[in-house]
Amino acid sequence: MLLAIDCGNTNTVFSIWDGKRFLATWRIATDHRRTADEYFVWLSSLMALTKTEAAVTEAIISSTVPRVVFNLRVLCNRYFDCRPLVVGKPECALPVAPRVDEGARVARTGWPMRWAPLAVMVAMSSLWISAPPPISTWSIMTAPMSAV
């Protein structure tokens, strides 16, 4: 099963994907000081409490907070015995080329900064996306905050 980790500035979301659906999803406050051991104690406790039985064999990390990625990688290596894919790294080829509207901010990876969660969802579900979101959603996603 796949452990998908989406790390944003405020929350980090952990989801277990079995290839067809999400078995569970949990959130924790993003903190660059949190260690791999702390992540594991928290995650394994929640898995036990919710009776989520998942043998994680793969992992993918999407993060807008570079300082957190190291400990998330250690978590995957140490406790799940897998090397995680990290969105934005060369070895993490995604099946969709990003379409960026003129004026949208783009991260160093070439992906629009607000697309990190989409990248994880694409990788988790192996979907091929042929079109951007509907224009109303797309306009909100790329509009300056003052226009929303």
Protein described:
With 148 residues, the protein is an alpha/beta fold. The chain has one domain: ATPase, nucleotide binding domain (Nucleotidyltransferase, domain 5, 2-Layer Sandwich). It contains four helices and five strands. It has helices spanning 36-49, 66-80, 116-125, 135-142; strands at residues 2-7, 11-17, 22-29, 58-63, 85-86. The protein has a five-stranded mixed beta sheet, with helices on both faces. Strand 1 (2-7) and strand 2 (11-17) form a beta hairpin. It starts with a strand and ends in a 6-residue tail after the last helix. The model is unreliable at 110-115 and 122-148 (pLDDT under 50).
Features:
Nucleotidyltransferase, domain 5, alpha/beta, five-stranded mixed β-sheet, globular, 148 residues
Q: What's the layout of helices and strands?
A:
Layout: E1 2-7, E2 11-17, E3 22-29, H1 36-49, E4 58-63, H2 66-80, E5 85-86, H3 116-125, H4 135-142
Parallel strand pairs: 1-4, 4-5
Antiparallel strand pairs: 1-2, 2-3
Helix pairs in contact: 1-2
